[in-house]
Input
Amino acid sequence: MDHGNETHQMLGCHPSEFIKFVIEERPKILWRHLVKEDGYIDDDDNYNKEFAEGVLLRRERFMGDDESGKQIVKEAREIYYGENTFSVESHCLRVFLIRDTRADGKPMAVEPFVSGLLLCADSRHIKHG
Output
């Protein structure tokens, strides 16, 4: 599936044009598609179509692997992980910290970007001795 129309619609233009916007304007546009203001982000948000489309902005596969695409992905990841608070079950923390991927499909550590994390203990995964 070609996601060019979706990314074009979110950015308001092609990525090569978006990168030419004044540096102070780009975060405002990205923020609208990447930040959830009303609570925590959890796994259910991956199924919320309106919010989940923002993932396209965080992946080189969709934004392009040229310098413009890489810069937009970098800025999008910084906003997404830095401006949201994530609700993560304790047994899923390891997976969460490597849930994003590089253009080559290899896992990417998101820990340096994350500023808000709510760690939830799930009693179903606690071993009782």
